[in-house]
Amino acid sequence: MNKTKKNIFLITLLILLSVIGIIIISIGVSMSKKNDAADHGTLTVVTSFYPMYIAALNITERADINLSNLSEPQTGCLHDYQLTTEDMKLLSEADVFIINGGGMEEFLDGVISDYPNLKIVDASQGIDKVEDNAHMWMSIADYMKQVNNIANGLSAIDNANADIYRDNAAVYNSKLEELKGMIPDTYRGSKVVLFSEAYEYLARDLSMEVETVLDLDEEKNISAKEVAETVDVIKQRNIPLIISEKQYGEKMAEIVKNDTGVKVVYLDTIIRGNYDKDSYINAMRSNIELLREAASWK
Ligand SMILES: [Zn+2]
């Protein structure tokens, strides 16, 4: 190869390498653009459990986002709940995690350290708790505050949809306001025994005097001593009503009812149900109707 031919060969090789280089770089750029679209496109929102999911479903209606709920606990509510592998996958792909707050999500510290980029919206910010009870969705007034907290939290994160979140929250809260107006006044000052701490918020909305709270749940075996004590309390303090949860409270409630003649109302704690957007309103309306019926027996 003479010198000129050698130069032509080298130049051709350089041009070829440059062309290949440009092709590789442009493929890379177009791929990273695709990844960008996946990262900054539709907002992915996960809720910690049922009442938060139903609130978020109403607030995000018509907004182009992905909404999902953690897997439902098999028993009771979130106390002692352990995240499943499916939950962890959901959270790893999520932008926002909406929690009830107030200590309900005992797994929260782990989530914060495992997913440092996940934005947390705490629905119970600024709500007056009944002691360390975190079942505030059971008060319609507090649930309305949770709705506002969720809408404000989402609006701050997802500015483009802020108007949608605020408008939806206003529409949902006006329905809840109407529901709140259905709460009977007949129970004001009346004594009650509760067979689940979830009802403390409802009892507060009804202005009832809570005498005793027995938190009957899946882990609790009712002892004969507890039954005897509850019967005594009801007889001595002349308590007319027990509000109980059906699944775990019925056995105890029926024994006490037979012994004392106390009235028992079984209400929904709204920790599970269908995934229809009106399901909180329907469940709470049915609670209120049962309470109205119970009041008419008095
Ligand atoms: Zn609970």
Question: How would you describe this structure in keywords?
Answer:
binds zinc ion, Rossmann fold, alpha/beta, four-stranded parallel beta sheet, 2 domains
Give a nutshell description of this structure.
The chain is α/β, with parallel strands linked by helices and about 300 residues long.
Q: What is the strand and helix layout of this fold?
A:
Blueprint: H1 3-40, E1 43-47, H2 50-59, E2 65-69, H3 85-93, E3 96-99, H4 108-114, E4 119-122, H5 140-157, H6 162-180, E5 191-195, H7 199-205, E6 209-213, H8 224-236, E7 241-244, H9 246-260, E8 263-266, H10 279-297
Parallel strand pairs: 1-2, 1-3, 3-4, 5-6, 5-7, 7-8
Helix pairs in contact: 2-5, 5-6, 8-9
The structure holds zinc ion.
The site of zinc ion has 5 residues, from loops.
Word description of this protein:
The chain has 298 residues and is an alpha/beta fold. It folds into 2 domains: 43-180, Nitrogenase molybdenum iron protein domain (Rossmann fold, 3-Layer(aba) Sandwich), CATH 3.40.50; 191-297, Rossmann fold (3-Layer(aba) Sandwich), CATH 3.40.50.1980. 52% of the residues lie in helices and 12% in strands. The protein has 10 helices and 8 strands. The strands form 2 sheets. Strands 2-1-3-4 form a 4-stranded parallel β-sheet, with helices on both faces. Helix 2 (50-59) links the parallel strand 1 and strand 2 (65-69). Helix 8 (224-236) packs across helix 9. Bound molecules: zinc ion. Zinc ion (ZN) binds next to loops.
